[in-house]
Amino acid sequence: QILYLKPPWTLANLLKCYKKHWMAVFGYVVPRSLLSTIECLYKHLCTGKTVDSTTAGILLQESKKLLHAFSSRSDYNGVLPQAYAEVNKLYQTLTEVRAALVRSDSEQDLSEDIMVLSENAVCEKMEAMAPNLQNCEEKKIHPSFHVAQENRHQEIWSVLEGVWNTMNLYSIEIFQKLDPNAVTVTAKSSFEEAFLGLQKLLGAVNGIREGISR
């Protein structure tokens, strides 16, 4: 009955209402620190700014964080899990596209390395034929491929380690909830968090499996 902007809402109107009523209403439902998430979404989605892929990834993660926070209150007749799944699907798609671009860049670096190595072979032959010839600059091997490979290995290890830690965390959470002696007042909130986390984990594992298959 007392509302800054009446429905129907655009996204901009909705985020404005969040900001206007944050301290009096929403800050009592979700952590107040999430106001920074609201401001981030408004800044990049409602001011006409162009969003690059990196920013898009951040905005999707912030959206997931907000939806996850509200899940502790209600599933809103099933709307919230559906919205979370769609946002997560967008994030997974963006991640796959960015990974494909990284692979493409790595392949391009490999092609450049092959060209450099070929030039090195020519230089070595010239040096053998003319000892007084100065060493050619192309003899230096371009290191970007090796750096890209090392970074890729670290990225894969980080993802797998994150999956393992998440599995441990939510497995412990679920088994605690299945034990009647361990149930606490916050069981509903924690179980919903575990459920949403496992949905996210399933998408990540499927993405890893598809990547390994490729």
Short synopsis of the structure:
This protein has six helices and no strands. By secondary structure, it is mainly alpha-helical.
What does this entry look like structurally?
With 214 residues, the protein is an all-alpha fold. It has two domains: 11-105, no CATH class; 150-213. It is 71% helix and 0% strand. The chain contains six helices and no strands. Helix 4 runs parallel beside helix 6 (187-213). The chain is flat, with a radius of gyration of 26 Å.
What structural keywords apply?
214 residues, mainly alpha, 2 domains, 0% strand, SWT1_Regulator, SWT1 protein
Total strand count, please?
A: 0
Q: End-to-end distance, in Å?
A: 55 Å
Structural class: mainly alpha
Uncertain segments: 132-141, 183-188
The helical percent reads over 70%
List the helices and strands and how they pair.
Blueprint: H1 11-20, H2 35-45, H3 53-70, H4 79-129, H5 144-178, H6 187-213
Helix pairs in contact: 1-2, 2-3, 3-4, 4-5, 4-6, 5-6
